[in-house]
Write a structure and sequence with these properties.
410 residues, 2 domains, 6-stranded mixed beta barrel, two-stranded antiparallel sheet, 54% helix, 19% strand, elongated
Length: 410
């Protein structure tokens, strides 16, 4: 179809959309169709933006706890670092901090309460690798001392054991001995036991983390787990902010397939994957609701075709082809959906921005933030727009096919 015919079809479609019809019901149905598309588009913008906000919030929460890069063995709990490969990693230009970690399960007890935890043994470099000041709730992040064993506990564990910094009584840590079976007659002899004084309480606002970890000095952890000074469960690295991806590739190439090297996102891949699945399932459900809303376009176009039978006959006698007449009503359906989508996008973005600025919608129930987090992403806007246009095209196809078979053949 030439440009002139294309412009003519578009011009006639615009006149049909905005001009007064013989039957006022057609105007009402067209308005309802556009309003349905508008509301569906607005809902998509708001819901996807809320998911973006929560995803960003979760990323920020994990960012304080997770290192830039984490090296772990593919098989086994621990691995040795007394080799040239890890010496090369320490000397890499982009590696700011190299921290040795030893993690394993243990049992802790305070007075008459006890609970299982994950002991995380850290070295002096850990305070440089992780922004501990951002997660410290009370006290100080102190685990290294020549004379005493100290520990930093999660706020969930502290609450569970009724521990406070004002209590001077030591926390007891129990770990089963590696090479011995439990002696039922004297079970206490089957465990390595150490005491530690609590110096600080950390808070990440992530329940699993706050109820899981107890930080101790890596020397204490090696004593409890019976590991030597070259044995670790992970290496955590602080890397130059602009060189994380490049450094990750270099370390993967250096260590080979026996080790995994994960960035912040990959360390919490399951959490983010679940959020993405929830987001796109919600998008699919709202798109189906939007599809139902676009069915009004079918009714609007069908009634318009009946209303404009005389015009169609006149255009046909003046030489307009079937393709041109079909294009007029196809454009009509598109214009209804595009108008609704455009207005819905504007209202949705304005509503999201107002939530960002003023925080109209509040969160109740002790959340870490007071209002719903909102982040509008341009990629979501583009996806929503093309989804609405595609659904509008599908809705317009049926009445246009009816026009070709029933009206233009008469």
């Amino acid at each position: 179809m030439s440009k002139n015919r294309f412009r003519f079809a578009f011009f006639v479609a615009c006149r049909y959309l905005f001009s007064k019809k013989k039957q006022n019901a057609i105007n009402v149905i067209s308005f309802i169709a556009a309003s349905g598309v508008c509301l569906g588009t607005l809902a998509l913008v708001c819901v996807l933006s809320v998911f973006n906000g929560f995803e960003s919030l979760v990323k920020d929460m994990f960012a304080y706890f997770d290192p830039d890069l984490k090296i772990e063995a593919i098989e086994g709990k621990t691995f040795q670092i007394n080799n040239s490969q890890f010496e090369q990693i320490k000397k890499m230009e982009n590696v700011i901090c190299f921290s040795e970690i030893l993690e394993d399960n243990a049992l802790i007890a305070y007075k008459n309460r006890q609970t299982p935890v994950v002991i995380k043994g850290i070295d002096k470099n850990y305070l440089k690798a992780i922004s501990t000041d951002s997660i410290l709730y009370d006290g100080q992040f102190l685990v290294h001392d020549y004379y005493h064993n100290y520990a930093v506990i999660g706020i969930g564990l502290a609450w569970q054991l009724n521990i406070g910094l004002q209590f001077s009584e030591a926390l007891k840590i129990f770990v089963p001995k590696r090479e011995e079976k439990i002696n039922i007659a004297a079970p206490d002899k089957s465990f390595n036991q150490q005491n530690a004084l609590i110096t600080g309480v950390y808070l990440t606002n992530e329940k699993d983390l706050d109820h899981k970890y107890l930080f101790v000095d890596i020397k204490l952890a090696r004593s409890l787990f019976e590991r030597d000074s070259t044995n670790v469960s992970a290496i955590e690295l602080k890397v130059h902010p602009q060189k994380v991806d490049i450094t990750q590739k270099e370390i993967k190439k250096l260590l080979g397939k026996d080790f995994s090297v994960k960035n912040k996102y990959e360390q919490q891949a399951d959490s983010f994957r679940i959020m993405q699945i929830e987001k796109w399932i919600t998008f699919l459900i709202l798109s189906l609701i939007l599809l139902v809303a676009t069915f009004n376009i079918i009714g609007s176009l069908s009634m318009l075709i009946i209303d404009k039978k005389e015009d169609i006959s006149t255009l046909h006698k003046l030489g307009a082809s079937q393709q041109l007449i079909q294009m007029i009503f196809l454009f009509e359906g598109w214009l209804i959906s595009i108008t609704g989508a455009f207005v819905g996008l504007i209202l949705g973005v304005l509503l999201c921005l107002s939530q960002q600025w003023f925080g109209w919608l509040k969160l109740n129930g002790g959340f870490i933030i007071d209002t719903y987090p909102i982040i509008v992403q341009f990629s979501d806007i583009i996806l929503i727009f093309f989804t609405v246009v595609a659904l509008g095209f599908l809705a317009a196809c049926y009445p246009v096919q009816y026009l070709r078979k029933k009206v233009l053949t008469q």
